[in-house]
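Same chain as my last thread, 434 residues:
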Amino acid sequence: MPSGQLEKEKINIYLKVFFGIYLFTVISGGLRKWFFSSKELDNFVLFLQIIIPYSFLIIKGGIKRWRVGVRVFSFLCFVFFIGILNPLRPSFYHGLLGALLHGSLVFVVFFYINNRSYFKFELILDWLVYLGFFQLALVFFQYSQPPDSLINTYADVEAVGSIATVGNSARVTGTFSYISGFTAFLFFHSFLVWAMFKYKYKSIYTIILLLMGMVACFMSGARSATYLYLILFLIICFNEYKALRKTVLDFKLILPILIIATFFVGYGIDKIRYLVENAFIGFAERRDRGIQTGEESFRIFGDLNEVFNFRGNYPIIGVGLGSTYQGANKLFGTSPYVLEYGFFESELTRVILEGGYLLLITRAFVIVYLIKQLFIPVNAKIVIGIVLFFFYSSIFNIYNAVFAAMGIILIDYFYYREMTLSHMSRLKYNKVRN
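reply #2:
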């Protein structure tokens, strides 16, 4: 719960915009799924989701404070400008939407880095925790329902066909979840748990959210989400060992654990066990199928082969931003050069196809630059940098982009906060000594 000192501080415009972006991203998929049957309204909500990361622009003076990475961001915008005006592009609207998609994550992180001291996330951490509990509780409920129940219906049944399942239940992921991109939320959730350890949040809430997130990964059926969750947990163990040990060995946990255990026994421990076992077994079966068919290996190493053996005819500057974006193609038509290329899936391939190696190299440089500006541990920087560039679709899945940006700046702030408080303590100590 917030301390008396925190209650006296006001939540500023930076936190309000952050929370607004987060909240809209959480509910927009549900709006598209359950409330908007009109394609026009559905497209409008999706367009709002694409531009919502740029809401920080409404903050008066936020851009004027930019000092870090101005030249780097300006060069990135110049590369976007080339992609928008590419003579091979299908339309100007493709290019504009493409630029918004390519720039969303990096814009949020750039803005945060240049205004870091204003993002006092400890003031809204309680709300993020409450929402985390609510969303995961909804996931557990959804997973316990039959695949053909109302809560498991798809946002666009005709486009996707039969309902994807993990075990005997519908996969809690994609546009048929209560949010579009539940696996993207799980990436953010891992950073939230990390921030709770760093901030020394109440142990019982931290442990429960950690375990619920792990089970939710199995329920999603997404191997990437599960692997990322486990990797980030290992990073927590390595870098926050003392905080983790203190949390796990907190004697205040005994009474809450007894209460929770009593509830489970009263509700039916077999039901809980079945829920968890079904999720894990279903995930394991899906992973085994991926290994046997070679699909999992292709997902890991196939991107590199596509990068080094690009088969497109325009490898330098590509065929224009937004050319591979499904939403733009539905509205404004598909580029003949994209049709000429044929099947593609990986994000790296799409980056080269749209902006050539010029955009790919620029993107790699920008990611490395941004990661270097963070205060998180070096091992975490390396892992997050590799994930963002190779294994995480943070451009063409706008939910991934938003949740990744939100999570990265959330955990970075608490490392920055710790460093700032430590520095102030040393200054105060030296002043007293002198």
